[in-house]
Design brief:
Elements (H helix, E strand, L loop, with lengths): L4 E10 L4 E3 H5 L6 H8 L3 E3 L7 H16 L8 E5 L10 H9 L5 E5 L5 H14 L5 E9 L9 H4 L4 E11 L4 E8 L7 E2 L19 E2 L1 H23 L8 E4 L4 H10 L11 H4 L6 H11 L8 E8 L3 E8 L1
Parallel strand pairs: 4-5, 4-6, 11-12
Antiparallel strand pairs: 1-7, 2-3, 6-7, 8-13, 9-10, 12-13
Helix pairs in contact: 3-4, 7-8
Bound molecules: acetyl coenzyme *A.
The site of acetyl coenzyme *A has 23 residues, from helix 2, helix 6, helix 7 and strand 12.
Length: 324
């Protein structure tokens, strides 16, 4: 019996129009372009307009991915959407996007794995295709993370941005995705979290207490160490070695974390896709945005081998090794 693989047949992305530069942030908090660039590699981020939602960005990214793949929305049989910033509590943003695309009837659900949301969604979608359950899947990572940003807190407000990316994943006799690895360790919850919610309750603080809490230095250390072992595990799962990878497409949180992973893989930075300078950390949006930029700019070519990885709140961490 021939194996079924899942293959990316189209990519798309969407960013809000408004750009907030480091110079703009210098007017809001005591910071400097120099500090932000040196510590993170970020120069600017996109910020959603009032009323512009995660679902708006996700829908646009999905439409572009469908167009690139030459697939009709009505042919999609599953939508998996990674997000930590859903439009409303329910229905899921995946359901809202499904209706706007005209893909009604297929299964659609959100995945909350913080910044690893898209990678989790991709891993799940791959399993649906490999099992024969689905043939054409929309996998989306979308966020309006700045809605959780406290613009008076310099430790966090310089790091995040809004955006969305999407891929169409189709069943194929050829790889495709070779391996995906998904992990979590809830024991690190207090290093990166947003502690309010429907069940735990909200507070009287500004924005009802909806605000990212992060111990930056500790997150940095665990992220570097964890990503090191994740890339080893992924190579092993796919039966490949470092030299087989054409492009590293990492989560775009911090250029120094990205450089550490590239070093571990013995890859020069000209084989690493970097968009953190333009987009900052868009959480679930980050990897599919970077992938779409690399595809549309002509960097990533058909037949090349890509390693995608992410790390985020939970902690969660996840990867995929694939032939594009
Ligand atoms: N501007 C100027 N100074 C600042 C700023 C700022 N925006 N923010 C902090 N500082 C100051 C601090 O107060 C501190 O001052 P002190 O030395 O007088 O106490 C000094 O800069 C150094 O602060 P550190 O936190 O030690 O700086 P560090 O080099 O660790 O960089 C950073 C901070 C950028 C947050 C880094 O730790 C980091 O990137 N961590 C990972 C965070 C991350 O990637 N989170 C997301 C991953 S998971 C996900 O995507 C959700």
């Amino acid at each position: 019996m021939t194996s079924i693989y899942s293959r990316i047949t189209g990519t798309g992305s969407a960013l809000p129009e408004r750009i907030l530069t480091n110079a703009d942030l210098e007017k809001l908090v005591e910071t400097s372009d120099e500090w932000i660039q040196t510590r993170t590699g970020i120069r600017q981020r996109h910020v959603a307009a009032a009323g512009e939602t995660t679902g708006d960005l996700a829908t646009l990214a999905a439409q572009r991915a469908l167009e690139a793949a030459g697939v009709k929305a009505s042919d999609i049989d599953l939508i998996v959407l990674g997000t930590t910033t859903p439009d409303i509590i329910f229905p899921s943003t995946a359901c809202l996007v499904q209706h706007r695309l005209g893909a009604n009837g297929c299964a659609a659900f959100d995945v909350n794995a913080a910044c690893s949301g898209f990678m989790y969604a991709l891993g799940i979608a791959d399993k649906f295709i490999r099992s024969g359950q689905s043939k054409k899947v929309l996998v989306i990572g979308a966020e309006t993370l700045t809605r959780m940003v406290d613009w008076t807190e310099r430790e966090t407000c310089v790091l995040f941005g809004d955006g969305a990316g999407a891929v169409v994943l189709e069943a194929s006799a050829e790889p495709g995705i070779y391996a995906t690895c998904l992990h979590a360790d809830g024991g690190h919850k207090d290093l990166l979290y947003n502690p309010v919610g429907v069940s735990a309750g909200f507070t009287d603080e500004p924005n009802h207490g909806v605000r990212i809490r992060m111990s930056g230095r500790e997150v940095f250390k665990v992220a570097v160490k964890t990503l090191d072992s994740l890339v080893d595990e992924t190579l092993q799962a796919a039966g490949m070695q470092e030299s087989d990878i054409d492009w590293l497409i990492p989560h775009q949180a911090n250029l120094r974390i990205i450089e550490a992973t590239a070093k571990r893989l013995k890859m020069s930075m000209d084989r690493v896709v970097v968009t953190v300078d333009k987009h900052a950390n868009t959480s679930s949006g980050s990897v599919p945005l970077a992938l779409d930029f690399a595809v549309r700019s002509g960097k990533v070519q058909r037949g090349q081998t890509l390693l995608l990885e992410a790390f985020g709140g939970g902690f969660t961490w996840a990867s995929a090794l694939l032939r594009y």
